[in-house]
Amino acid sequence: QAQLVESGGGLVQAGGSLRLSCAATGRTLTSSNYGMAWFRQVPGEEREFVASITGSATSTYYADPVRGRFAISRVNAKKTVYLQMNSLKPGDTAVYYCAARRYLSIQHNSPGDYDYWGQGTQVTVSS
Questions:
Q1: Other Cβ atoms closer than 10 A to 26
Q2: 74 — phi, psi (to 5°)?
Q3: DSSP code of 96?
Q4: How far apart are CA 95 and CA 75, in angstroms?
Q5: Rounded to a whole number, what is the distance in angstroms from the first to the last CA of the chain?
Q6: Pairing state of beta strands 121-126 and 10-13?
Q7: For residues 74-88, b (16+ Cβ closer than 10 Å) or e, as one string?
Q8: What is the pLDDT confidence band of residue 27, given thresholds at 50, 70 and 90?
Q9: Measured CA distances, 127 to 73, 93, 105 (Å)
Q10: Is 69 helix (H, G, I), strand (E, B) or coil?
């Protein structure tokens, strides 16, 4: 059974940057069959898709609000996925979660598409 642990969240001023990490235990990330994604959630709202990356890292997908500002990457040997967040805005404030599923593709952008989840890390962007 795989477990995912996020880190790297914190408080940053608007326009700043943060890099989130998601470390996996188990064999999930060592298999090129498993894709990874980042979601975020604000209290009282639904969890929303941010970005995803296929198991082989050949394809990445982004939600429109973050495209051009965020970058997802992975290092399978380290069992770690990253989310580099630049030009942060107050609207990016949320709890960020990483998630995993087998055979990820572009249509997998809903929380129900994923089998494994981390506990989340808080990102707060001040104006």
A1: 14
A2: -150, 150
A3: E
A4: 23
A5: 40
A6: parallel
A7: bebeebbbbbebeeb
A8: low
A9: 27, 11, 35
A10: coil
Q: Contact, 57 vs 82, CB < 8 A?
A: no
Q: Give the pair of three-digit tokens for residue 31.
A: 């298999």
Half-sphere exposure of 117 (CA within 13 A, CB side): 15
Q: What is the pLDDT of residue 79?
A: 87
As a whole number of angstroms, the distance between CA 88 and CA 15 comes to 5
CA pair distance 8, 57, nearest whole angstrom: 21
Q: Summarize pLDDT for 61-87 with one digit per residue, the tens.
A: 999 999 999 999 999 888 899 999 999
Q: Round to whole Å and give the CA distance between 36 and 58.
A: 12
Neighbours of 101 (CB within 10 A): 19
What is the full DSSP assignment across 5-31? EEE--EEEETT--EEEEEEEESSGGGS
DSSP 63: -
